[in-house]
Amino acid sequence: MENTSNNQCFDDYEIKVAVVILNWNGRKILQEFLPSVVKHTTGKQTKIIIADNGSTDNSLKFLSQKFPDTEQIILDKNYGFAGGYNRALKKIKAKYFVLLNSDVEVTENWLEPLVSHLDENSNVAACMPKILSYRQKMHFEYAGAAGGFIDKYGYPFCRGRILTNIEIDEKQYDTPVDVFWTTGACMIVRSSVYSKINGFDEDFFAHMEEIDLCWRIQRAGYSLMCIPQSKVFHLGGGTLKTDNPKKTYLNFRNSLFMLVKNLPEKKFKITVFIRLFLDFLSAGIFLLSFKFSHFTAVVKAHFHFYKSIKTLKKKRKDISEFSKISEMSNIYPKSIVLEFFKSGKKLKFSEILFK
After folding, report:
1. In a domain? residue 56
2. Residues 265, 268, 273, 275, Cα dihedral to 10°
3. In the predicted model, what is the mean pLDDT of the chain?
4. Looking at residue 15, which CATH number applies to its domain?
């Protein structure tokens, strides 16, 4: 990155905020969503950077012609979400990194509340805005909503979205709150903390890597927040559709990776055993529903998991060396899946109790 003569000093950083958008063959998406980012992202100490994951669709030429004020980091191939961001962020000297999906429409003053909260709260390592659906503006969006959580078996859910039940935004979750995970669709994180915990786990490639990152951030002694005074709209499903078997494979595999790496010693064996059993039931449902590609995806995920156990145990040991906290108090102590079906698939976040 180039230095500019009017840059102030932010410790050892060149700029204060780097808004980094990871792109892979997303020219059409950038054409639709990048204008809002350029329009509503201001400040001399803020830069918009496109990190390109080896695109072949003329994305870079398009950016140079239409958005010359944005910067580019060019990677030689597609390293996935985790690897792409790790490589790009190593090239950027900013106090705060904003990880922003290319299919997010931001709003006026979207960035200021997030930056201000980090400025004023040194114990907070990362924040996210309220995420609403780009297609249905009054609804929360699946990937983050108003803040992410997980249950005791590692199943993720959000304020405003329990599994497939997505709530209408009626300002019921407009209070800033500590969360378990901040969404990779739009999050701001301290670069020092990101570096301290070695960024994303690249073995995840894509999906659930931000939950693993956030778990490690909390184990290092920091907290995470959703700041609903910042609002963005997310299209979602731009890379892999919900019904894509590859997405099924990544979610099942990566969830097991995350649990083995981060669960406390006294819980991890029994929890992983139960989770394996639940995955077996899920595979059976796919089979009985004639969703053979998804059944195969679950089997493949488990095969890869067993093959990776030795590596995962080493990672577990490495994480424990910098961890200040082993057991999280903000994990939902029940099965969110069971509670969801008991409710008739109408469960709302406001109806669940964490104690």
Report:
1. yes
2. 180
3. 93
4. 3.90.550.10
